[in-house]
Amino acid sequence: MPGPMQTSYRDLTCGDARPDHAGRVVSLAGWVHRRRDLGQLIFLDLRDRYGITQVVVDAAQSAEAHAVATTVRSEYALRVSGTLAARLAGTENPKLATGQVELRAQEVEILSSARTTPFSINEPDAEVDEALRLKYRYLDLRREGLQRRILTRSGLVQAIRESHHAAGF
User: Fold this and answer.
1) Are 73 and 115 in contact (CB under 8 A)?
2) I want to staple 105 with a disulfide (CB 3.0 to 4.6 A). Which of 48, 57, 98, 112 is the partner?
3) d(CA 61, CA 37)
4) Tens digits of per-residue pLDDT, 96-127?
5) For residue range 148-169, what is the model confidence (pLDDT) as tens digits?
6) What are phi and psi of 131, to 5 degrees?
7) Residues with Cβ < 8 Å from 145, sequence gap 6 or more?
8) Which residue(s) pair with 55 in the sheet?
9) DSSP designation for 37
10) Which fold has domain 19-112?
11) pTM score of the predicted model
């Protein structure tokens, strides 16, 4: 039975990958948060609204996926299929909920390319002019701090509504 976050693009969200999923073939979809190119290995941090998962594209495993990954830049929208694997000892990232696993890519599909953004989405403390943020609101909404504030406000409004409903209002 498909999970509530499963779509035709993904089996898991980028925030759901855990060590107990190791060995599963899955598809993830999201935006490229960061890209590190080490030649035969390309590391992509794939981000969606739920979190970040590291994707490893190895030319030895899939030359096609590697060829696509060489063209990818920050904020490209991707669908990546491959096998979830536990990260090697010493390479785990304790700062991420998904930091114990990585997706070893077999297929990389570009859903949408992106131009260079007018401000950094990845740097939470970056000072950005408010007029620029409003002009590019769709990009600003991808920033983690703003997402967190919107979710907090949504939870607060929901609690108020439930309280009023329970009181007969």
Assistant:
1) no
2) 57
3) 16
4) 888 899 999 999 999 999 898 888 888 877 78
5) 899 999 999 999 999 999 999 8
6) -60, -40
7) 124
8) 44, 103
9) E
10) OB fold (Dihydrolipoamide Acetyltransferase, E2P) (2.40.50)
11) 0.80
